[in-house]
Design brief:
The structure is a homodimer of 251-residue chains. In chain A, strand 6 and strand 7 (136-139) form a beta hairpin. In chain A, 38% of the residues lie in helices and 25% in strands. The longest helix of chain A is centred in the last third of the chain and has 17 residues, at 223-239. The first copy, chain A, folds into two domains: 4-162, MoaB/Mog-like domain (Molybdenum Cofactor Biosythetic Enzyme, Chain A), CATH 3.40.980.10; 170-246, 2-Layer Sandwich (Alpha-Beta Plaits). Chain A is an alpha/beta fold. The first copy, chain A, starts with a strand and ends in a 5-residue tail after the last strand. Chain A has helices at residues 12-15, 23-34, 48-61, 79-87, 95-104, 112-115, 149-159, 181-194, 223-239, and strands spanning 4-10, 37-44, 64-68, 91-93, 119-121, 125-127, 136-139, 142-145, 170-177, 199-206, 212-220, 245-246. In chain A, strands 2-1-3-8-7-6 form a six-stranded mixed beta sheet, sandwiched between helices. In chain A, strands 10-11-9-12 form a four-stranded antiparallel beta sheet. The radius of gyration of chain A is 22 Å and the shape is elongated. The relative contact order of chain A is 0.13. At the A-B interface, helix 1, helix 2, strand 2, helix 6 and helix 8 of A face helix 1, helix 2, strand 2, helix 6 and helix 8 of B.
Chain lengths: 251, 251
């Protein structure tokens, strides 16, 4: 069994619709490559009791918990003290991070707000931030990342080698241009039943020129099974009078 | 108090990173306009027990629950029977929808898979689908929408007039080009403390030309308070030697 993961997106700006989240897709793709099963994502507001309760529940339910957002210097950046509270740990200056940020900022600009970014749950291990210095951190199975996408991605890549991995997900896609899901459904159900250990997914697409079709994705941990299921999908599309097109994205 | 809402995004394709969700942002913006507080979003897989348990929990915890995805004709489209199970209701042919879809498809093409799209929890009220006919539905406080964005949006707009509304969220944004969050943090904390009923949010941005800054958003239900807080934000930016720029998106 691959390890499981949950992403907690912490931020009023996503719940208000102000900001389009793009971090979930990045982390989701990387976890699939690393053989970690993303089982759930929750988007929650910048409210202390909600964040604390959600972290407490998630860290018990999943092997890895990733949070994004809420680790900057302003009053609405409360992820780090909430993680400390969820673990029952004090939230304290991390001396090495303090020195790093003190050296990063010009003389006199490492103010109280910025010193909060050097304040971590006791025992946390910083995740380096090659973009703007202020680190994320891991404590137990909870990994706290920035919300700004390019910083989040850099932190994730710093963290990735140390995560407990599993078997990468194998995936093969065939597109049926001009076919509808309703025509494919019966044949797909048969294929899913023949390969109960795989996920056979069916996703309609529509091109800018107005032509549409369906993408059929076979996914799972056993590459030979995935290939066999994808061969069956290819044959199904051909049998319905359409030329199967392989690969991603849709043609 | 405004009514609360939760969005359940149902779909392996989001959790695998294959697909970038765009439905959350659309619904989030519309709910803010309608005065409905989006309190949580959960992205969950196409797994029956997970979907059922999540719907049971969400419908008890929030005034409105919106689901997206999983209402097509294929084997992985299991939202409707899961909602029926969560309500303890039979999942039965909805005669009016059956007739609608029978008339929509060419003779002989309204097959068993497509008939599933006319099968709803007993007592459900269909949500019209002006794009491709197969409807969503509401049962109790759970509103079941398509996953394909243009169909989801059309269904949402069909549904919106019948939702219990509240007071629309008022919002005013000021941008500080060239300022960092760390310089603004102390002043912002003061403003947040003066306006405890509002959310004062701070969001760094970075333009394609490499110049960055911070957007400061004042949000709440009382437009006069929002204006007063935004005036204080404007003054803070000016006091730090920067010219405040109003509006959305960032300059």
């Amino acid at each position: 069994m691959n390890p499981t993961a949950c992403i907690l997106v912490i931020g009023n700006e996503i719940l208000s619709g102000r900001t389009q989240d793009v971090n979930v897709q990045y982390i989701a793709r990387r976890l699939a490559e690393l053989g970690i099963t993303l089982a759930e994502v929750r988007i929650i507001p910048d409210r202390r009791p909600v964040i604390v309760d959600t972290i407490v529940a998630a860290r018990a339910a999943f092997d890895h918990v990733f949070t994004t957002g809420g680790i900057g210097p302003t009053h609405d950046d409360i992820t780090a003290p909430c993680v400390a509270e969820a673990f029952g740990l004090p939230w304290v200056i991390h001396p090495e991070t303090f020195r790093l940020l003190e050296a990063h900022f010009p003389q006199g600009e490492f103010n109280a707000a910025r010193q909060r970014m050097a304040t971590l749950p006791q025992g946390a291990v910083p995740i380096p931030n090659p973009v703007s210095s202020a680190p994320g951190f891991s404590i137990g199975n909870v990994h706290v990342l920035a919300g700004v996408p390019r910083i989040m991605r850099a932190m994730f890549e710093e963290l990735a080698p140390s995560l407990r991995h599993g078997t990468p997900v194998a995936s093969q896609s065939w597109h049926a241009l001009g076919l509808y899901e309703g025509a494919l459904a019966a044949g797909l159900t048969d294929i899913q039943e023949r390969f109960p250990g795989l996920d056979i997914g069916s996703y309609p697409f529509r091109r800018p020129d107005g032509r549409g079709g369906v993408t059929l994705v076979s996914k799972g941990l056993d590459p030979a099974q995935v290939r066999a299921a994808a061969d069956a999908v290819q044959a199904l599309i051909a049998q319905l009078g359409c030329t199967p097109i392989e690969g991603e994205p849709p043609p």
